[in-house]
Amino acid sequence: xxxxxxxxxxxxxxxxxxxxxxxxxxxxxxxxxxxxxxxxxxxxxxxxxxxxxxxxxxxxxxxxxxxxxxxxxxxxxxxxxxxxxxxxxxxxxxxxxxxxxxxxxxxxxxxxxxxxxxxxxxxxxxxxxxxxxxxxxxxxxxxxxxxxxxxxxxxxxxxxxxxxxxxxxxxxxxxxxxxxxxxxxxxxxxxxxxxxxxxxxxxxxxxxxxxxxxxxxxxxxxxxxxxxxxxxxxxxxxxxxxxxxxxxxxxxxxxxxxxxxxxxxxxxxxxxxxxxxxxxxxxxxxxxxxxxxxxxxxxxxxxxxxxxxxxxxxxxxxxxxxxxxxxxxxxxxxxxxxxxxxxxxxxxxxxxxxxxxxxxxxxxxxxxxxxxxxxxxxxxxxxxxxxxxxxxxxxxxxxxxxxxxxxxxxxxxxxxxxxxxxxxxxxxxxxxxxxxxxxxxxxxxxxxxxxxxxxxxxxxxxxxxxxxxxxxxxxxxxxxxxxxxxxxxxxxxxxxxxxxxxxxxxxxxxxxxxxxx
Length: 517
Hints:
Largest sheet: 8 strands, mixed
Oligomer: single chain
Strand content: 15-25%
Distance between the termini: 32 Å
Helix content: 25-40%
Number of strands: 16
C-alpha cells in the first residue's frame, strides 16, 4: 500500500529539468483544471474538427466486424501472414527481417493504437513533438488505422497527423490493421503491392464468408500522393522488412512481432522469434497484444505448439529485459521478478489516440505486488471520468464523482492507499461507494459478485469503453519516449490531457531505468 506521505518522486524529463506535476501529484497534473484546449485542433482538417469518430455509430462497428467473425469461426491471420512473408522473400530472398543500427546511443517514441483520426489522436501530436522531435525513429505499436485498416484512411489517420515528425516511423500491426488482410499496412510500411499481393480469402465456411467484410479497393496512386504530400522528405522515408521485424543495435535488440487478429503468432514467425531472441544481448519485445494486462497473464499462443510467446520471453538464454504491448488503450506497468531473480518490465501502452480503456476496473494486482504496478490514468481519475459520462448520459447527476471522491472510493474498495495526496476525508461517502461498485471497481484482489453494475465490466469488450469514447479534455492519452545508452534502457510515459498548458511540457507519469550490463 502506498501511503500519502510516501509518494514516489516526480519523474524527470530528458535533459534533467524539473518535471511539471503529474497526475500522481495533483489534479491539475491530471488535466482536471484545464485552462484552455490545446492547439491540436489547428492541425486537423476543418471538417474533421466537427466530425467525430465514434464507436457508438453502427457503421463503425459493422466495418470492424471481422474481429468477432475471426473469434467465432477461426482467425485466418496466420495463414495469410505466411503468404505475405513468402511474397516478401520472393522480392528479397536474403532478408532476415532484421534492420541494423550502429549507434550505441539512440532514442525513439512509441505510440500505441493511434488511428482514429479525431481529436483524441491529434491531441497527442503537439506534446509528442515537444518531447520527442529529436528521437531517431517512432514505432506505432498496434492498430495504426481504425476501424478496418483500409489504405484509404492512411492520409487522415497516419500521414497527416505525423507530418511534422522528422524521422522514420515503423509499426507492428494490430487486430484492426488485419481487417483488410493487412493490405494497407503492407503497402505503407513494407512497400509491397501489386503483383506481390496475396489473395485474401477470409475464413472458411459459408456463414463466415457471408459475414466476413471483404477488403476495400485500393488506389495506389492516391496513397503515393498522400505520402509525398505529408511525409515525403528523405529523413521520413523508411521501409521495414516485414510485419514482424527486429532492430539490432550494439547494446539492445528491439523485436516487433505481429499477433494478428486474436493474438497468436504462426509457427514460422515463432521460429524466427527464437532465432532473433538467441544470445546474451539484452532484448526489448514490442507486440500488438500485451503479455500482462489488467492483472492477467496473456501468454500469446503459438500455432501448433504448447509453448507461448511468454515462454520465449522468460527463457533466461534470451535475456529479455522488457515487453511493451498495445491493444489496450491505457498505460500499465508490471515490474515482475522471476524465480531466477531476473526482473522483466511488462508494459501496456495503447493510449496513443484511440478511446480510453478504463483502469478503475483493474483489481488490486496479484501478478505483481501492488507497489510494483503503475497505471495511467490513475484508477480514481478513470472512475471520475466514467462516472461523469454516465451521469450525463443517464441524466443522473448523483452518479458523478469528483476526482478526489473517486480516488478515495477506489482505495476503499481495493484496500490500498490513495496515490495523490488528499486534503480531505479518507473515508468515502455511501454514494461514492455505491457508484464505485456500480461502475465495476472490484473488491480487494478479486472482483466479487455484488450489485448490478453499469456496462463497464460485465458486457463484452466491444460494448464497454468503446461506447464511452469522448472528445474533450482531459483525454488521458499517453506515449512513451525510450532512450538507449550503452549501459541503460530508460522508458518514460508521458500523459496527454489535451490542455493547452501541458502541450509543450507534458507531465511524465512514469519512468523506469533498466540496466543493460
